[in-house]
Design a protein that fits this description.
CATH architecture of the domain at 65-129: Alpha Horseshoe
Strand content: under 5%
Order of helices and strands: HHHHHHHHHHHH
Radius of gyration: 20 Å
CATH topology of the domain at 65-129: Serine Threonine Protein Phosphatase 5, Tetratricopeptide repeat
Number of strands: 0
Largest sheet: none
Number of helices: 12
CATH superfamily of the domain at 65-129: Tetratricopeptide repeat domain
Length: 230
C-alpha cells in the first residue's frame, strides 16, 4: 500500500494543478496525501474527477426542472476543471435547494481540491453528520487534522474504525493525530496494529519509531529505525 501511495503523489499533484514550483503549497499537501491514499486503497471518492451518481428523473416527469439542469451544469463544469464556475453554479443551486445533501458534499469536494480547507469544512459542517457517507466523514477528519483540531479528527477516525477495522489508511491517520496530541501510548498502539498487518511497510515503521522517540523510548526507536535501513 505504501509504495503505491507514494508513487501516486506526484501524479495526483499534477492532475490537481497544485504544483506551481518545486514544492506543493503547504495547505494543499493534505489533499494530495488524502487522495493518493484513497486511490492506493481502491477507495471510491466522489470528487470532481470521478463521475458522481447520475441524476435521474422520477417516472412520469417529462421536463427537466431548472434546479436539476443547474446541478448537471455544475458537475459538467467541475469535470472540465472550471472549478470557480462550478462553485458559482453550486451556490445558486443550494440557495434554491438547500436540502440537496449530495450537492453540498460535491461543493466541499471541489473546495478541498482547490486547497480551501476552511471553506470545505464549513460546507460539510452544515450537514448532519449521520447524513455523510464514509468517504466524506474521512474528508472531514482530514480537514480537522489540517486545521490542527486533532480531537475532532480522532473522534471521526475511531468511529470509522469501529465499523471498518481493516482500513489501515484511516488507522494511520489516527495514529499520526494521536502522536501530535502527545498521546503517545494510544498512538503507538495504533501503529502496532498497522505493523502487525503490514510488517514490511518501512514508512509506517519509521513513523512508529519517531513516536517512540517522542515518548523517550530511544533504544526502541533506534531498533525500529535500524530495521528499515539496509
Amino acid at each position: 500500500m505504501a509504495n503505491k501511495r507514494y508513487l501516486l503523489i506526484p501524479l495526483i499533484a499534477l492532475s490537481l494543478n497544485l504544483v506551481s514550483g518545486p514544492e506543493l503549497c503547504s495547505e494543499k499537501i493534505g489533499a494530495v496525501l488524502f487522495f493518493a491514499e484513497a486511490v492506493a486503497a481502491d477507495r471510491k471518492i466522489p470528487t470532481p474527477a470521478v463521475r458522481a451518481p447520475e441524476l435521474k428523473l422520477d417516472a412520469g416527469v417529462e421536463e427537466i426542472p431548472d434546479w436539476l439542469a443547474r446541478w448537471e451544469l455544475a458537475r459538467a463544469l467541475s469535470y472540465m476543471k472550471r472549478y470557480d464556475e462550478a462553485l458559482d453554479e453550486y451556490g445558486k443551486l443550494l440557495k434554491a435547494r438547500p436540502d440537496l445533501v449530495e450537492a453540498r458534499i460535491e461543493t466541499a469536494n471541489i473546495l478541498y481540491w482547490q486547497g480551501k480547507v476552511k471553506e470545505a469544512l464549513r460546507e460539510l459542517e452544515k450537514l448532519p453528520f449521520r447524513d455523510l457517507p464514509d468517504v466524506s466523514r474521512l474528508l472531514m477528519a482530514e480537514l480537522y487534522r489540517s486545521l490542527k483540531q486533532y480531537e475532532r479528527s480522532v473522534s471521526i477516525y475511531r468511529d470509522h474504525l469501529s465499523k471498518r477495522p481493516d482500513d489501515q489508511s484511516a488507522r494511520l491517520k489516527l495514529a499520526e493525530a494521536l502522536g501530535w496530541m502527545k498521546d503517545y501510548p494510544a498512538s503507538l498502539k495504533e501503529y502496532e496494529i498497522i505493523l502487525k498487518a503490514s510488517p514490511s511497510d518501512i514508512h509506517v515503521r519509521r513513523k512508529y519509531a519517531l513516536v517512540l522517540s517522542w515518548a523517550g523510548r530511544h533504544a526502541d526507536a533506534a531498533r525500529e529505525l535500524r530495521a528499515t535501513l539496509k
